[in-house]
């Protein structure tokens, strides 16, 4: 699950230090934990009967406000002008659709399993990128990537096995969410060639807020949310924007090839928060399937060569 490419600071261009690498990992993990809190908030609110669209509306509105306060008026204005507005609006709409589907998945299945199914997104990217992105990797890379796809697919079958904990509707929505996320990643690669990551982050919030504003009158709250629900709704925008902000900052300290294996650490935060907030733990068979999906994802990202690159980066860093 590669994030959008980021402008490389001078320090990173000269070669990251060990401190830079550790800072990048720390920011990435911190961002993942914060985004897992967003997922847990969405799961809590939708399970309590709040409309998914209304929850998403406040999430995206809060996203824009939080980024505005984080950057300040001058920087927000300077970084909110995309080079290709149409492509950014398309990406933002796809991100909103992905959010709505994933919140619906969280309503139906445990947090860890929902997150694991979303890890299938890189498998879809490999399958679709030759046609949608025109990517033609060499034979060795193709073997590694498609081997990862097969491993990840086997893990997915273990997670959704007949007689498991998951409903067919939840599984269907989970795989749809992964497909949407894969398409979002591919579109993110396109916009990254023209806009800075912060511009994309701002535009994602603006697009989501505008589109949900059009939809939310048809999906309004049936009753006034409680004080606790209001607090959770307000936190959704904050955790969404701040979590993505930390992930972006992580890739300014270390590049994507170094950080890609650490993306799968989110399963730890999803499992921990899922247990603490909902008392849900995957059984051993499901845990095995989740682990296999993660291994498949690492293979898709480059497998053994990526892990060697991570080790070399630490050895060479001053």
3D structure, described in words:
With 318 residues, this protein is mainly alpha-helical. The chain contains 15 helices and no strands. Helix 2 (18-47) packs antiparallel against helix 11 (227-250), helix 5 runs antiparallel to helix 9 and helix 7 crosses helix 9. The longest helix has 30 residues, at 18-47. The protein is globular, with a radius of gyration of 19 Å. InterPro entries: EamA_dom, EmrE-like. The chain crosses the membrane at residues 21-38, 50-71, 92-110, 116-134, 146-163, 169-188, 200-220, 226-246, 258-278, 284-306. It holds the Pfam family EamA. Residues 24-160, 169-299 form the EamA domain.
Q: Helix and strand layout, with pairings?
A:
Blueprint: H1 10-13, H2 18-47, H3 52-71, H4 73-78, H5 85-108, H6 111-118, H7 121-132, H8 139-159, H9 168-192, H10 197-215, H11 227-250, H12 256-259, H13 266-278, H14 284-301, H15 304-316
How many DSSP-defined strands?
A: 0
Order of helices and strands: HHHHHHHHHHHHHHH
- Please give the radius of gyration in angstroms: 19 Å
**Nearest-integer average pLDDT:** 84
Which blocks of ≥5 consecutive residues have pLDDT under 50?
1-12
What is the rounded distance between the termini?
28 Å
The backbone outline, from C-alpha atoms, is: globular
Strand fraction equals: under 5%
Class per helix and strand makeup? mainly alpha
Largest sheet: none
Number of helices, counting only DSSP H or I runs of 4 residues or more: 15
Percent of residues in helices: over 70%
């Amino acid at each position: 699950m590669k994030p959008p490419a980021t402008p490389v600071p001078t320090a990173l261009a000269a070669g990251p230090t060990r401190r830079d690498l550790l800072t990048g990992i720390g920011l990435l993990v911190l961002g993942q934990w914060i985004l897992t809190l967003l997922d847990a908030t969405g799961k809590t609110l939708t399970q309590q009967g709040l409309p998914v669209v209304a929850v998403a509306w406040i999430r995206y509105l809060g996203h824009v406000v939080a980024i505005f306060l984080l950057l300040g008026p001058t920087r927000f204005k300077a970084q909110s002008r995309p080079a290709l507005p149409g492509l950014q609006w398309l990406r933002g709409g796809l991100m909103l659709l992905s959010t709505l589907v994933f919140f619906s998945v969280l309503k139906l299945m445990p947090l860890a399993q929902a997150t694991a199914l979303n890890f299938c997104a890189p498998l879809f990217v490999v399958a679709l990128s030759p046609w949608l992105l025109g990517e033609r990797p060499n034979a060795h890379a193709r073997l590694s990537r498609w081997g990862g796809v097969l491993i990840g697919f086997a893990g997915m079958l273990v997670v959704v096995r007949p007689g498991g904990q998951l409903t067919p509707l939840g599984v269907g929505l989970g795989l749809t969410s992964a497909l949407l996320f894969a398409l979002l990643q591919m579109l993110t690669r396109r916009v990254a060639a023209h806009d800075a990551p912060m511009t994309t982050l701002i535009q994602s919030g603006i697009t989501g807020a505008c589109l949900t504003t059009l939809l939310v009158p048809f999906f309004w709250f049936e009753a006034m949310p409680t004080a606790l629900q209001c607090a959770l709704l307000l936190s959704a925008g904050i955790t969404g924007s701040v979590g993505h902000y930390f992930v972006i900052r992580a890739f300014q300290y270390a590049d994507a090839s170094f950080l890609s294996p650490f993306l799968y650490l989110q399963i730890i935060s999803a499992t921990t928060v899922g247990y603490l907030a909902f008392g849900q733990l995957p059984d051993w068979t499901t845990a095995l399937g989740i682990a296999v999906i993660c291994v498949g994802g690492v293979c898709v990202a480059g497998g053994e060569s990526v892990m060697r690159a991570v080790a070399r980066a630490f050895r060479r860093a001053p």
